[in-house]
Amino acid sequence: MLLLTVVYAVLAVITWTAFFYKVRDLVRDWRNRELQILCLSIATFAAPFVLASPHVYMGIDRLLGVPNIATLIIYVCVAVCVSGFIALLVSWSSAQSGMRARHWVGVGYSLTTIAAMAVFFFLGNVDGVEHPVDFDVTFAEVPYISVFLLSYQLLFTTSMVMLIVLCRRYAAAVDRPWLRRGLRTVALGAFFGLGYGVPKILNMLWDQVATSPLHTVSSIAAPLSASVSALLFSVGFTMPAWGEGLDRLRELAVTYRAYKRLYPLWHDLATAFPELVLLPPNDRQQPWSARALLTRPAIGIREGRMTLAPRGGDQADSLRDLDLLVARQRVEIRDAQLRLRPYFTDTAAETARELARERDLAPDDVEAAVEATQVSVALRTHAAGAPVPSQAPGRHEPAAVDPAEEVAFLVKVAVAYKTSPIVAAVTERFGAAGTFDTGVTAS
């Protein structure tokens, strides 16, 4: 009994967490029928883990004054739950018109079974001591109660088979990765659900002709299998929502990492050519200023780092603006490079390339080091006030590349610009005013 109490308590926390997670969406879109069905289904399979705990079970019996009435309540909850899951899957189907008749047959079967369960439960005699753990075994041969139990188990097992079939069918058809994973998880949960329903049915049928040897399996192993099933249902039916949230969080982390690594290079170029910058960094406050703390602060961006920022500001400086900020960094870095191209030299580029090859760098890292060196040398020369060389390169036409690939390469350039000893050495050597060769590169 202690084991089941602990297991049910853990599962109650998990399943009710899943319920409240989806209720947030329902509050925002309360007319959404699919969300209504999902929340009802999750609530009705979360409730039994509270009600089936032996102490709660006996408390319900004492409160209502009907021995073992908690069993009826629990079984009705589970019946509503599995029926709701099937209705939800049918609703998700793209061929709802073709499934409508079968859908209503399934709903009718579920409602009829639930009504029959209530009738047979009250016709039978379950008076006496409460049996929160072994109700099925104790009353399997009691008139009417045996029909009550068999009706419930047949509905449950039939629903599990339907879930497996529907989930496998839909998982092969959908194109959303997290929805596909969720459906497969639900199918696995339904498989464990069969580990509850099938032993129960076999045990009850066996008891009709002889004493069944499956009493222990029915009382202990079957509920544990149902517990695993419920856990997998909680994960599977909510996976499309929180899985896509994980993807967004991962994308946010990647974007912020790119922004942070691009910032030193962008900052130096923006300082040299401030007229190119559309969104200057927010320097209006310190990270932990009183203003930030007293004006409903939000996570924001300041000088390349996460910090606190007041809500409702007029600058693009929050995490929601990261995509825009990185896009502006990419454009402004490229625009500044065009301004610096007259200062790019073949000598500095070839020196950097030779040093990079001596270090056995990968080809992309070599080119990133060369580009970072060109920018660093040109910035130093531009800052020293050197005149523009007479043999300046012509208009540069960059190759059309995917923006994400360009950002990834610019991150390599920015990292080399900030940390590479090659860039530091070549800049120190060639970055003086008036240090130009006669050839100018267009790289």
Question: Mind sketching the topology for me?
Answer:
Elements: H1 2-28, H2 33-51, H3 54-64, H4 69-92, H5 96-123, H6 135-138, H7 145-171, H8 177-207, H9 215-272, H10 290-294, E1 298-302, E2 305-309, H11 322-340, H12 346-358, H13 363-383, H14 403-419, H15 421-430
Antiparallel strand pairs: 1-2
Helix pairs in contact: 1-2, 1-9, 2-4, 4-5, 4-7, 5-7, 7-8, 8-9, 9-11, 9-14, 12-13, 12-15, 13-14, 13-15, 14-15
Number of helices: 15
Percent range of helical residues: over 70%
If strands are numbered along the chain, what order do they take across the biggest sheet?
A: 1-2
Mean pLDDT: 80
- Count of DSSP strands: 2
- The coarse silhouette is rod-shaped
**Cα-based radius of gyration, to the nearest Å:** 34 Å
Tell me which oligomeric state these chains represent.
single chain
- Spans of at least 5 consecutive residues whose pLDDT stays below 50 are 283-299, 306-316, 390-397, 433-443
Range of strand content: under 5%
Distance between the termini: 75 Å
What structural class should be given to the helix and strand makeup? mainly alpha
- Sheet of most strands: 2 strands, antiparallel
Taken in chain order, the helices and strands follow as HHHHHHHHHHEEHHHHH
List keywords for this structure.
mainly alpha, about 70% helix, about 450 residues, two-stranded antiparallel sheet, disordered C terminus
Characterise this structure.
- A hairpin with a 2-residue loop joins strand 1 and strand 2.
- The chain has helices spanning about 1-30, 35-50, 55-65, 70-90, 95-125, 135-140, 145-170, 175-205, 215-270, 290-295, 320-340, 345-360, 365-385, 405-420, 420-430; strands at about 300, 305-310.
- The radius of gyration is 34 Å and the shape is rod-shaped.
- The protein is about 70% helix and about 0% strand.
- It is mainly α and about 450 residues long.
- Residues about 285-300, about 305-315, about 390-395 and about 435-443 have low confidence and may be disordered.
- Helix 4 packs parallel to helix 7 and helix 5 (about 95-125) runs antiparallel to helix 7 (about 145-170).
- The protein is built from 15 helices and 2 strands.
- A two-stranded antiparallel sheet has the order 1-2.
